[in-house]
Amino acid sequence: MLLIDFFSDRKLLIGIGIGIVAATFVMLGTKVSYQMSRAQIEDKARGMGMIYPQEVKVINDKGVSK
After folding, report:
1. Mind listing the pLDDT tens digit for each residue in 14-61?
2. What's the CA gap between 52 and 57, in Å, rounded?
3. For the chain, N or C: smaller number of CB within 10 Å?
4. What is the 3-class SS of 13-46, one letter each residue?
5. Which whole-number Å values give the CA distances from 45 to 8, 19, 32, 42, in the listed order?
6. 61 lies in some domain
């Protein structure tokens, strides 16, 4: 019951509302643009450890008679 009284306090709700409005105005001023070429994306992915399947040598000894 105390938690419900805490969230029904007008000062808290006004503070949250003002914070949401202020954050909205700040976010409207920012512009996010991701303009990366395919080569830049591949370079970044390889730096994080990406490899193509044809670059991996697979050895499968199951069911192979010698």
Report:
1. 889 999 999 999 988 887 777 889 999 999 999 999 998 888 887 777
2. 11
3. C
4. HHHHHHHHHHHHHHHHCCCCCCCCCHHHHHHHHH
5. 48, 37, 21, 5
6. no
Quote the number of domains for the chain: 1
Is residue 27 a part of any domain in this protein? yes
pTM (predicted TM-score): 0.41
Q: How far is CA 28 from CA 23, 24, 35, 41, in A?
A: 9, 6, 20, 27
Q: Are 6 and 12 in contact (CB under 8 A)?
A: yes
Question: Would 26 be classed as within a structural domain?
Answer: yes
Q: ∠ CA(12), CA(17), CA(23), 5° rounding?
A: 125
Residue 34 sits in which domain range?
2-55
